[in-house]
Input
Amino acid sequence: MQTADKDQKNEVEYHGYEEYQNRVKKLDEIRNLGIDPYPHAYQNTHTIKDVLSNYTEEDEIGSFDDGKEKRSDHVKVSGRMVLHRSMGKNVFASIQEDGERIQVLFNREVTKVVGLKEGDVTDHKFLEKKIDLGDIIGVEGHLFRTKKGEITVFASEVTLLTKSLLPLPDKHSGLVDKEARYRKRWLDMIANKEVIETFKMRSKITSLLRKFLEDAGFVGVETPILESLYGGAQAKPFTTHLNALKKDLFLRIATELPLKKLLVGGIPKVYQIGKIFRNEGIDATHNPEFTSVEFYASYWDYKDMMRFTESLYSFLAMELFGTTEIGERTCRAGNKHQIDVKAPWIRMTMKEAIKTYGDYDVDKMSDEEMTKELKEKSMISHDKLKKAVRGNLIAYMFEEFAESSLIQPHFIIDHPIETTPLCKLHRDESQAREGIVERFEAFMLGMEACNAYSELNDPLLQRKLLEDQQRHLEGGDEEASPLDEEFVESICQGMPPCAGNGIGIDRLVMLFTNETSIRDVLFFPMMR
Output
């Protein structure tokens, strides 16, 4: 009985598919014909994209006869076969690579299969019966243009490079199920060219981001993912165990604290692009594993950082689109807006934003009045509201009644100190007495885009605020941070006045690619 259960658990679903079984049978037949279905390499002369981009619609390429008689340009290309249709002596196929397709013609008289010996199976019959949609092939031949104007390779030789054992998604319905697309991203990319373009855009954005920072004098570094203590954000961490030291560790929730230690060490401008891990919910704008960039500049304050952030977004827009007007974008509510990231962005204090967009003047409201409004009009748990101090209530009022209205780029400045233990008190003494800190968050399309401060470098105040966080953690607040004595020690050594910023790369890509779900800009998002 145990053996049967074990066999049932190990059973692979697709092994029962008729198409899989048929292709495995073909694989044996191909090998018996003396052909290696998985050769080690193939030397192209061109990519498909090269061939298509080398010729304009007006360029003479050659006729069918030119291709057949090898009088036109010679190419060797490779790709996955995604279309196949027989027309008498000729078979027209399409091969695809890197999101680009080119047409190929197999001719009964001309086209040979590399490695196929003379015998019972002809080259034409092999191509017709042994090659399937999804197989990867190399094609050598000469170009011609069809009567409809399509660039085509007249194949003189075909090399089987990879025999696929599973079929492609149906060519008519395609891969439309979102869950399947996210779980099987490789199929999504084969079936939907725009997916590849999105991820190419992501790569370009990351490259441009590095260039902008490094041109401004920032030094790129790497810091540990595994930490003895976590900090730099308000988030519940993931835990793991290091066998070698018999020690529990945490996956980092931010790169802030180690980067600040490097400022102390004497690097005046530092940045890191890296993975962050937060044991939190999954929705359209959150994934437990995400990518961020954090950058810190000595002798700057949050005003300097605001100007730099505006410049960064403008630079990216100009490089990607040639204008700061990035086009029509969809907000979280599903409405479409024309977005322009040109500086200067709208600046509002958190309280001003609540009054402007939520029609609440929190300076005239008691804690009880704010709690009542939030209980009646938000989904925040009553237990969470019961524990909240005034600064937290103000932040909740902003999140619930103002945030979704921040469509064009906004800087929301001057937050309550309870929202972060790592930020300088406001330089205005009256604001400082009220517990306001020099923090800003950028918002676009009702979504947070970045989080920045004038960084706290007073070690005595820093210790007090982190001790408060430790007490909250011990009191059951899973998002509070523990006291990191090593970090406090480092700034006791003297950290220069500085400003820092953290930008979620995934949300940045969402903005510039007009995607409304974080899953569409992650190769492999977390699935339930």
Summary: The chain has 18 helices and 19 strands. The chain has a mean pLDDT of 94. The CA atoms of residues 263 and 523 lie 33 Å apart.
